[in-house]
Design a protein that fits this description.
Helix content: 40-55%
CATH topology of the largest domain: D-Maltodextrin-Binding Protein, domain 2
CATH superfamily of the largest domain: Bordetella uptake gene, domain 1
Structural class: alpha/beta
Radius of gyration: 22 Å
CATH class of the largest domain: Alpha Beta
Number of domains: 2
CATH architecture of the largest domain: 3-Layer(aba) Sandwich
Number of helices: 12
Shape: globular
Order of helices and strands: HEHEHEHHEEHEHEHEHEEHHEH
Strand order of the largest sheet: 7-6-8-5-9
Largest sheet: 5 strands, mixed
Distance between the termini: 64 Å
């Protein structure tokens, strides 16, 4: 009887461990790794989440920028950290979905080495042209491009960016040919499109709105899932015009591999509360043209599976090599 009670006590203690962890967490500062430079999309969102949770949790969440290798370096640091909940990372979808197909080798496996926590949001996109291009729809753009193969150039933020991948997809699916012109920064790209130095671009509604309002750029389609972009409600979606591709960059939060499930659920629940707050979303996600996602960990896993399938196809179409 005494041995039975002793064994029962051990079992109950083990069963109660996750609850104890959840109740006592966090008891010290948390490191939040952003695998890109400061002022990037996921950096701004990470800092907003960190500030809000620091206040409610009573412990500082310190954002650390570890840029390099298109996000691989910082995410690898997170993947190899102790799975105790005191290191988290906020990579973009490019790191998780596209990099494994674009690099010949990866320092970590996104599926094996990270614990998904929550899908924070997804970036809306708009395909637009300089007003000198005689096209008001995607079909008209394709017709112009077919008439003069290679004469129209398509600006992007570099090889592997969403703009570059959309151009490659359109070429492959429609038999057109554009000239790809990569730019190092969004401001430089927008100036070039507004001036007519390049003809086509893919950017966020927020990033391109000023040039649209100035009459220098014409939006042809938005890429915003099944609905239209909040910033450009009158512009039809890519899907509405008959083109079924919804590959956009996104932001998510991850813990290292083997992190306690209750800690992942704790992060998921508290970040979901932030994403349900209209003021938080409008202030921190709206300026970046990011649509809040949220939802369960299981929903995040299903989303990433679909995203990786599209990334694999696009990397193959573009013969993408980022090494």
């Amino acid at each position: 009887m005494r041995q039975f009670l002793k064994l029962l006590g051990v079992v109950l203690a083990c069963a109660a461990t996750p609850i104890v962890i959840a109740q006592s967490y966090p008891s010290k500062p948390i490191r939040m790794i952003v695998p890109f430079p400061g002022a990037a999309l996921n950096d701004a969102i990470a800092r907003a989440v960190a500030q809000s949770l620091s206040l409610s949790w009573g412990q500082p969440i310190v954002v650390e920028n570890r840029a390099g290798a298109n996000g691989n370096i910082g995410t690898d640091v997170c993947a190899k950290a102790a799975p105790d909940g005191y290191t988290v990372c906020v990579p973009t979808g490019v790191v998780i979905s596209l990099n494994p197909f674009a690099y010949s080798s990866m320092p970590f496996d996104p599926v094996r080495d990270l614990t998904p926590v929550i899908h924070v949001g997804i970036l809306d996109q708009v395909i637009a042209v300089n007003t000198s291009v005689p096209a008001k729809t995607i079909k008209e753009l394709i017709d112009v491009a077919k008439a003069k193969p290679g004469a129209l150039n398509w600006a992007s933020l570099g090889v592997g960016s969403s703009g570059h991948l959309y151009m490659e997809w359109v070429q492959a699916k429609t038999g057109t040919r554009f000239t790809h012109i990569p730019y190092k920064g969004s401001q430089q790209l927008q100036m070039a499109v507004a001036a007519g130095e390049v003809h086509v671009t893919t950017n966020t509604p927020g990033g391109i709105r000023a040039n649209i309002e100035a009459g220098k750029v014409r939006p042809l389609a938005v890429v915003a899932g099944k609905g239209r972009a909040k910033g450009l409600p009158d512009v039809p979606t890519f899907l509405e015009q008959g083109y079924d591709l919804d590959f956009r960059n996104w932001v998510g939060i991850f813990l290292p591999r083997n992190a306690p499930p209750d800690l992942a659920r704790r992060w998921n629940g508290d970040v979901n509360k932030l994403l349900a707050d209209p003021q938080f979303v409008e202030k921190h996600l709206g300026p970046w043209s990011v649509t809040a996602a949220g939802g369960s960990i299981e929903e995040f896993l299903a989303f990433m599976k679909r995203d990786r399938t599209m990334a694999a196809e696009l990397a193959k179409i573009a013969n993408l090599k980022l090494d």
